[in-house]
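Issue 218. Parser rejects a valid record. Input:
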Amino acid sequence: MWTNSDEWDAMFDNLFDDAPHVEGCDSNSDADLDPSEDAEFECGDNVISGDEVISGDKVSSGLEVISDDDNPTPKRLKTQDPPKFRLHDKTTPHTGLSEFTMNVLKTFEVPRAFFFILAMMARLNETWVDPPDLCGVEYYAGKAHLTQAFQVLGLRFLPYDICYDEANHNIITALGFMVALSLANRIEEDGLLWQGTVCSSWVWLARSTTARTWYLPRGDENIEAVWKGNIMAARCGLLLVWAYARKLFWVVEQPHSSLLRRHPSMRWVATVASQCHLTWHSVHTFMSRFGTKTPKPTVLVSNASWAFALARSTPGVTEPSKTATCTKSSCGRRVVTGNRDGTLKETQTSTREFGKAVQAAWQSDRQTYQSLQMVNPSDQWFDEPQDAVEAWTDLELDPLIDLSKQRLAQQMHEP
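Output the parser choked on:
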């Protein structure tokens, strides 16, 4: 068992002995075991430093993340040929994950600490390696109309929302995110990972407060809502990588004006998906066509072709109602205020009709997951270079490592 920092660090390093690498990328095994050395990985004609490959989360002997001042952001080197996945399903030690899954995670350059967390979760959770038993999970479920549409047909579909369990379903906390990962690990192949990520700090109504812009989407992180929104965005991106790695269908639902898609993690996932020819669709629709009182133009970002069945080009007939009021301040600045009559709050949840439409689209056009498909992304995802260091900055995995250590220590001392 691991009782001191050296033994913890040894376990952390040995985790990567058997972790597979992307084809065409051969690593120096000695450097790979010691994150403190300047490891180098050869990819085609380029040499990428080990810190770049592991997303810049440099780890010292005490699993202590070095500050940004000591670890300047490296430039991402581009290779001529996109990386290819090895389609083997051999399970790797420590994590209980297939080699394919490990390859996808490394291709998206998820932080090295994430592999450590997966190993800890596999050790702490006896059901981690059990066969998947869920048809899907609805994150940020709200009234869970989507979940109900699946459950009424006898399908095992679970909601995840803080309104159901403040302790275990709060994706901002370490425990909440570990529960989210555990649920995602239980989704069977071709299942659905749905995310209706909280949009309140990303939409145009909040721009004057959050200071988010098209080119500065992270906004003013001194504001709690902005800071939390950035964590949600980064963890949303990591869940999408997890969905790719587990061969799941995924959908991210956002209002049309949301800047969530501009967060570095989302742009990074889109960039790597494009390089690897993974599917990435943007489907535009109007929620008024599914029973809402206001038009609510919506974008569904997904890797599923069946999502186009939910596209609607016009809002149809809607009741005249306003969700916000625009006024001018004394200095001539435009001020946008959400109406307090409940109209704005009603737009936050989807309808039963929409849940049924999603279930019908998934059921009618469900096909065996194809990891390599053609992608035709919008230019808005790729208008500037991205790198993994910036993409995963807001993940904040340190609390998950601390919680994993604490839970394992408790488990070791239990009779």
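Fixed in the parser; the record now loads. Residues 202 and 341 are 22 Å apart (CA to CA).
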